[in-house]
Amino acid sequence: MEYLAVKHTHMAIAVLSIVLFYVRSFSRMGSGTIAKNKVVFIGSHATDTFLLISAFALMAIAKMNPLEQMWLLEKIILVVAYIVLGVIASKQQKTSIKVVLLVVTTAVIALIGKLAVTKTALFL
After folding, report:
1. Which of 38, 44, 92, 102 is surrounded by the fewest CB atoms within 10 Å?
2. Mean pLDDT of all residues belonging to the chain
């Protein structure tokens, strides 16, 4: 029961993280007012922190080792890529570059979701 509770919490936080990512991304393509809002900014970072904490809790509860589970290692690598792409996108001035990074980040999010559902490595 503990595993399911943490898993569902993790999934809910993941959805919230993705929603906040898109809210901030689309805001930056416009006036940027929402992205600069302290509640949205801090909420986004807090959400991502809780997402990572719940991920580590899931790995500990399930006794999963990313070096033994290639799909999990791929997922961790893609989460790092998601974070890096988000940081790079937030610093861009040109809308065209922001759009390209948004499309790439969307593909990374889709791959993370596929790995979470199938638990089958795609690249490793």
Report:
1. 38
2. 94
